[in-house]
Amino acid sequence: RLNTKLIYRTTRNMSLTEEGQRLYEVLVSALGQIDDALKDVGDTQLEPTGLLRINSSRVAARMLVEPHIGEFLTRYPKTKIELIMDDGLSNIIADGCDVGIRLEQGLDEHMTAVPVSPLIKLVTVASPDYLKEHGIPETPQELSNHNCLRLRHKSSGALSAWEFSNVVGGNEEFEIEVSGKYISNDDESMIRMALNGTGIIQHLDFAIAEHINAGKLQPILEDWAVSFPGFYIYVSSRVRMPSKVRAFIDFMVEKRVKIES
């Protein structure tokens, strides 16, 4: 039927021809995919079980994961969670993690990603007391006259530049190197310093929403704020997804839908 020879056969042994070897490799790959598909179907019927290792940036862990861990463990009592907080670009496979949570721009192309937060805005804020004493800047360039509190990235050691969008100029985004008298590698420390009136910070809106809503932090330069896709939960597209991972992704998407509604 194939009109070609697949096997060399002698009285003592057998071996594949070149065409036989190619066919063998294709069939092995296809059978492996079929086996994975059958396991995936079976896994959907299994109760999520075992240790789920999550690698997340600190902000995402604090705002998106930690508030809901108790509910997830109650819903799936045979699971356990290990939460690794890491602000670097983690290789979840090399680090032995099941899932990661990062902003979209930090994702590898070989990852399958699902959004777990709404769109995020990068806001510039200060306490009302600071602004009353030092005045409110009208443009990003006027920040040079203010004490801008700066975040040092733990992974790279670089100071974070402040980002803005030029609404008048067609929403063109640009960065400004601000200066100030306080630097920290912890974003919660930056928030505390802003709350006590030390200076101005730039942060993700949903991470400081409670302080803004309470009037403890006041947004400034709102017409210059940058918006971008939020956080994504991601897994390797090359690894079969066990039921515990599938359950956690569905759970996080459920929480995102509630936030958006």
Keywords:
7 helices, LysR_subst-bd, LysR_HTH_N, 261 residues, sequence-specific DNA binding, LysR substrate-binding domain-containing protein, DNA-binding, D-Maltodextrin-Binding Protein, domain 2
General description of the model:
Keywords: DNA-binding, Transcription, Transcription regulation. This is LysR substrate-binding domain-containing protein. GO terms for molecular function: DNA-binding transcription factor activity; sequence-specific DNA binding. Residues 1-17 form the HTH lysR-type domain. It comes from Escherichia coli. The chain has 261 residues and is of the alpha+beta class. The chain folds into three domains: 7-43, no CATH class; 50-117 and 231-260, Periplasmic binding protein-like II (D-Maltodextrin-Binding Protein, domain 2, 3-Layer(aba) Sandwich), CATH 3.40.190.10; 120-228, D-Maltodextrin-Binding Protein, domain 2, CATH 3.40.190.10. 31% of the residues lie in helices and 26% in strands. The protein is built from seven helices and 15 strands. It has helices at residues 18-43, 58-65, 69-75, 128-134, 187-195, 209-213, 243-260; strands spanning 7-9, 14-16, 50-56, 79-85, 99-103, 111-115, 120-126, 150-151, 162-166, 172-176, 183-184, 201-204, 218-220, 226-228, 231-236. The strands form five sheets. The protein has a five-stranded mixed sheet with strand order 4-3-5-15-6. Strands 7, 12, 13 and 14 form a four-stranded antiparallel sheet that branches. It has a two-stranded antiparallel ribbon with strand order 1-2. A hairpin with a 4-residue loop joins strand 1 (7-9) and strand 2 (14-16). It is elongated, with a radius of gyration of 26 Å. It starts with 6 loop residues before the first strand and ends with a helix.
